[in-house]
């Protein structure tokens, strides 16, 4: 136990949080409530009154943090996207080549299971928060393309030119989106992805990406 | 010139269309107007009055054909999906293997260029006409999986088990959707897909799908 913690216990008085800390907590509570409401009811039904009620703050407090409901929605998906990237990064370890890709897709499906509201927030955003959707896709695809570039620089994808990696990143992002739509739900909630679907995905990725020959090398 | 056509010209009097034919023409005009309105303004702004004005029919006439605006929207995407499948089929010829896949993606991108409203109708449907979206995706993915099965039965994809072809169909559908989103627009309208993007796509598909080894065969 840390010295600070001990002192807190001895005096039996919680440390007073700073104004900035409390403000950030409220902001996070509003994000969390908005995510739950959009996940459950969609953007159209996620009103400010529902969001503030869920976050247990006064309705007027909302405007200390966001200009409007749309302003919150425009920040919601990019914020969740950051969380998703951190989640996936934490699962990558030192893996390289196709194993890295396998960890990535498994982590993505696990993220959906842990944050079931993410899927609806993402797909409704294309229509109802297009600015956020564009920002999210750019950030995620950019990160993916950079990760593939590091793999490419290790010589793991000899068949590709560097600028093609962005095309690959979009194809893989697209695939995981559609595969979760088709196979990742039991009822309305994300469930475990069937193992044979991951295997079929990995077959395509392994041969398509990592086994592709360098131009000029002998075809097999 | 056919005998009928000649007769029409001789009498200089157009053949009187049957009631059923006129009814079908009105129906098609409403579909066409709805497609244009949704493509331009989105489902939310595509009101019955806008649609009937564009189709040049009285507003009340609408209800002879559709129960509601939502009923029209629910039929719109599947109808366009049929049109898309016919368009792509007409371009396939006798091609087999990866060449068939290349024709398919080129035909898809050309369809988007010729029917620029399709993209918005499709992506907004996931949120605003979910029943139509589900029906469309099932129809398109089912058709794609059957086409891949015929290819598989010709022995073109020795590395795959039959049930994995549906996973592949979803991956390829997803890829063309995301690639059109990223590379297929100049400004707001679909434009020509850059040639190098199609080449990168085909590299992935050729190696991932057609060059994949049968289980048990020697790795290269």
Automatic annotation (TrEMBL), chains A, B:
Task: Indicate the segments forming the HTH tetR-type domain, all copies.
Answer: 24-84
**Keyword line:** DNA-binding
- Record feature DNA-binding region, as residue ranges: 47-66
DNA-binding as UniProt keyword: yes
Q: Which domain of life is it from?
A: Bacteria
Question: What GO molecular functions are on record for this protein?
Answer: DNA binding
The UniProt record lists the keyword Plastid: no
Q: Name one Pfam family in it.
A: TetR_N
The residue ranges flagged as biased composition, category Basic and acidic residues, are: 1-13
Q: Which PROSITE patterns match?
A: HTH_TETR_2
Chain residue ranges for the region called Disordered: 1-26
Q: Which PANTHER family match?
A: ACREF/ENVCD OPERON REPRESSOR-RELATED, ACREF_ENVCD OPERON REPRESSOR-RELATED
Q: What is the name listed in the Swiss-Prot or TrEMBL entry for this protein?
A: Transcriptional regulator
Name the species this protein comes from. Oceanibaculum indicum P24
Taxonomic lineage of this organism? Bacteria, Pseudomonadati, Pseudomonadota, Alphaproteobacteria, Rhodospirillales
